[in-house]
Amino acid sequence: MLIIILTLLILNLTSFFPRTVIKYYTLTLKKYIKDYFKIIKKGEQYGIIEYTLIILFIIMGSLLLISSNDLVSVYLSIELQSYGLYLLCTIYRNSESSTSSGLTYFLLGGLSSCFILLGIGLIYANSGTTYLDHFYIITNISNIIQGEELYSSDIAYYIPYCLLLITIGFLFKISAAPFHFWSPDVYDGIPTIVTTFVSIIPKISILVILFYLVHFTNNIYILTEYTWTYSLLISSLLSLIIGTVMGLTQFRIKRLFAYSTISHVGFLLLALSINSVESIQSFIFYLIQYSISNLNAFFLLITIGYTLYFFDNNKIFDNYNININLIDKNNSPIQLLSQLKGYFYVNQTLALSLTITLFSFAGIPPLVGFFAKQMVLSAALQDGFIFLSLVAVFTSVIGAVYYLNIVKIMFFDIHSYEWKNLIFKSIPEEDIYKLPLSSSLSITISTLTLIILLFMLVPDQLLQLCNILSLVFFTSFI
Predict the structure, then answer these.
(1) Cis bond leading into 178, ω under 30°?
(2) Which domain holds residue 250?
(3) 139-150: pLDDT as tens digits
């Protein structure tokens, strides 16, 4: 259900926003806007007829993956989802950066799929089964007859290592460290609208199937003195550190969001690997709030880019104050942090909405992101993961630096925006900065921002839902 809702919101952005803006300006400013045809051209990219079909393939693969009970169907579902993502990344054929990033994603994604297929093949070669239910039975029977060496050596010993190979492929798909190296380049190269989809939908489905694997194989460590979930803990630690440290050096905003996503994946993997009722509840809650916050951040990024289209800002600098020209600016209007300088004075509402979302990413109370991190850390401390909890706290504090840097740029840096050669005779001078947005986009951004901001006032429904889901899953598999 979460995947369907998020997809509808993203399709709402790609389908309605450009057309509504064009229609609005056509009705009011057609006589005065000299580059009117350029505005129409910005909507041509959404006329690709394969776009909706590819989205349907991705959603079908995600839903099949979540409902799969067999490793073969898991692999086929992942491939259906992945090939749709590869096509979506390269669908803007006139964009060189999009094409090269999509090719990189395809090559490295194919390599990760090889690890998944190898792990599945080894499991089938030794056990003769690929059903997840059978792994649950095997591990519990192993617990009963663990005194028989033949059974334990032939059945239970190899399973963690096969699952480790599968996990490597999964960790690549969700851009968790140390398999994260592809995501900053791909996120930065593909259009922002596609980045919105790639950064959210596949992570939900793959994290859910990882959640299933943890529960179906939670008794293997009794015999082998090794559990494959240790790899999740290691990946969680590396994701927290790498996502935070590398994010501090970024001046391209989508690369910064990519490293931010890596650090959030670290929290999700920490909750996933603990395997208790409290950790499952925190995992579900964190996944929901991360999806909402990340979706709102990218919506705001795209909207800010379109509102700045009517400004002539030639002074774009990188981190070393070197004037640069942006590549693929039509598909990714906002690429550098410096483009947000003084944006608060252009549109206060969007600037405040983005600030609230960034504060939630940082885990600042009383926003929803704070409660999500608090639940994960509480579950980790209850199970004795003190070191990882301390690392998570320190990385959250350090990671707040690059979120606050964006806020500082928007509110306190001096902007250099000037109107293009447009004539606005019908608009009063004091309202010249109030650019219209589509009603559907405005409602979506407002709703997501209010959920992030006002969660503390009505937390019962969502927390009860997470608690019920965690109890259902936990009691079904343990």
Answers:
(1) yes
(2) 2-477
(3) 666 554 444 444
> What pLDDT was estimated at residue 127?
79
| Angstrom distances, CA of residue 410 to CA of 156, 317, 337, 350 | 56, 15, 9, 11
Q: How many CA atoms lie within 13 A of 385 on its CB side?
A: 26
Global pTM value:
0.86
Q: Which residue has the tokens 């630690």?
A: 237
Beta-carbon count within 10 A of 426 CB: 9
Q: Are 58 and 88 in contact (CB under 8 A)?
A: yes
Radius of gyration of the chain (CA): 24
Answer whether 139's CB lies under 8 Å from 80's CB. no
C-alpha–C-alpha distance, residues 245 and 259, integer Å:
9
> pLDDT by residue (tens digit) across 373-389?
999 999 999 988 999 99
> How far is residue 461's CA from residue 450's CA, in Å, rounded to a whole number?
15
CA-CA distance, 32 to 228, in Å (whole number)?
Answer: 65
Nearest Cα to Cα of residue 198 among 173, 222, 216: 173
Give the count of domains, the chain: 1
